[in-house]
Amino acid sequence: MALATRPVTSVPNDLEAFWVPFTPNRAFKKNPRLIARAKDMHYYTVDGKAVMDGSAGMWCCNAGHNRDPIVAAIQQQAAELDYPPAFQFSHPKAFELASRIAALAPGDLDHVFFCNSGSEAVDTALKVALAYNNVRGEASRVRLIGRERGYHGVGFGGISVGGIVANRKMFGTALSGVDHLPHTYNREKQAFTKGEPEWGAHLADDLDRLVALHDASTIAAVIVEPMSGSTGVLPPPKGYLQRLRQICDKHGILLIFDEVITGFGRLGHCFASERYDVTPDMITFAKGVTNAAVPMAGVMASKGIYDAFMTGPEHMVELFHGYTYSGHPLAAAAGLATLDVYKDEGLFERAQKLEPVFAEAMMSLKGEPNVEDIRTVGLLAGIDLAPMQGKPGLRGYEATERMYHDINIYVRVAMDTLVASPPLIATENDIGEIRDGIAKVLRAVA
Ligand code: PXG
Fold it and tell me: N or C end of the chain, less CB within 10 A?
């Protein structure tokens, strides 16, 4: 039976128990937005409407939804091996996937530590940075540097180095010894830029200021998203990441790229690191690695970092860290099938080819009501809307409601910014449809 004509999942009659994450629960439960199923570019709501997915879920279903080879791989794995112990034992597919990811990684990032979410990957990378400095005899390097407007998940490590105020202010002081670089967005200098803005590389020099303040001997690592996603798509200014790399090298500071969003094709390469020709010491990834079909994330570390731990008695654990579900068989199977789809369908190259078409389509929304800025890079666009007077976030929330209930399109909204990041399988027609859908939404909330 065709997907859209199958009977729909029933609507639950009690929405109270589920505390919905990052969602206004009372408003949601009065008028819920429930998805029953998905295929390729579309979601299908519980009452059977097709909704164009303009954001690949939450930047994660890069190959489109419910892809047959990925579904089959998960089904087969579930029947074969549900779970082996993740510590002191493992299973073949975890090794196979790690090798495949290492082969895709830039430079000598040859080792993969598996986690289950981007937040865990970030906390893992920060812990590895601290522990690495211990094992190499530089235990005084305890400070971690993040950046304003950065999003690194919701663990205590991630919110500490992160720079989104609402995610931090309710949760005490989190980690101590953290400092932040300035963010790189300046509307006056950068408004309506396609790709990386010309202005702003000098902002990386602020790391020199932090080194002067704290001394390099106290700083373990700098973590940044090569392109800040959650805060509304802020591509790095031209030359900024190279400069950050140089300053880190000068002072023996590790550089971590959080590629949870940018990994697996979003910017037209497997990793943003490739697009910008800057190799960090660690990369965190999640989302696209399994096309979001099973939760999985990880950290890629350089050979130098991994080797530094491989000392001491061989029967002893080298890094006291890991998760029950690190490298879970269902995730590993989904990951292997996903990497095959990316390769067989040339989806990263496809994203690269579509970038100018997508940028043009998104920029053509300039002039629609309340549009204050549009930024595009890869298959990503951030569209800032003027907030309603005295009610920041309300226009954005209304956009989320209207698009689901009336317009049959979905794009992610953060406060008053709309973010489009379509699956990499999108056709030029799909991009046109997403563009027109967004235009309707903008007029509906004018
Ligand atoms: N780092 C980055 C750069 C992220 O974007 C995380 C870490 C955390 O991943 P987990 O798997 O713990 O959620 C993220 C997640 C949005 C949005 O629309 C962004 C994320 C998640 C949900 C929504 O801005 N990014």
Answer: N
Give CA–CA dist 15/17, Å, rounded.
Answer: 6
| Three-state SS at 160 | helix
Q: pTM (2 decimals)?
A: 0.97
Residue 184 CB-half CA count within 13 A: 31
| 71-344 has CATH 3.30.70.20 classification | no
* Atom 24 of ligand 1: nearest residue by CA position: 230
Sorted by where each begins, the domain ranges of the chain are 25-67+346-444, 71-344
Q: Which of 124, 230, 412 to mutate to test the pocket of ligand 1 (most atoms within 8 A of CB)?
A: 230
Residue 61, token pair as written in the block: 């279903």
pLDDT tens-digit series, residues 31-90 = 999 999 999 999 999 999 999 999 999 999 999 999 999 999 999 999 999 999 999 999
Protein residue with its CA nearest to atom 23 in ligand 1:
58
* Residue 393 DSSP SS3: coil
Question: How many CB atoms within 10 Å of residue 173?
Answer: 9
Could you tell me if 322 and 396 are in contact, meaning their C-beta atoms sit under 8 angstroms apart? no
Q: Which of 23, 53, 59, 283 to mutate to test the pocket of ligand 1 (most atoms within 8 A of CB)?
A: 59
Q: Whose CA is nearest to atom 10 of ligand 1?
A: 118
Q: How far is the CA of 6 from the centre of ligand 1 (A)?
A: 32
The CATH number given to 25-67+346-444 is 3.90.1150.10
Which atom of ligand 1 is closest in space to residue 295's alpha carbon? 11
- 344-349 — which CB contacts under 8 Å span 24+ positions? 345/63, 345/425, 347/62, 347/63, 347/265, 347/424, 347/425, 348/264, 348/265, 348/268, 348/269, 348/270, 348/424, 349/268
> How many other CB atoms are there within 10 angstroms of residue 8's CB atom?
15
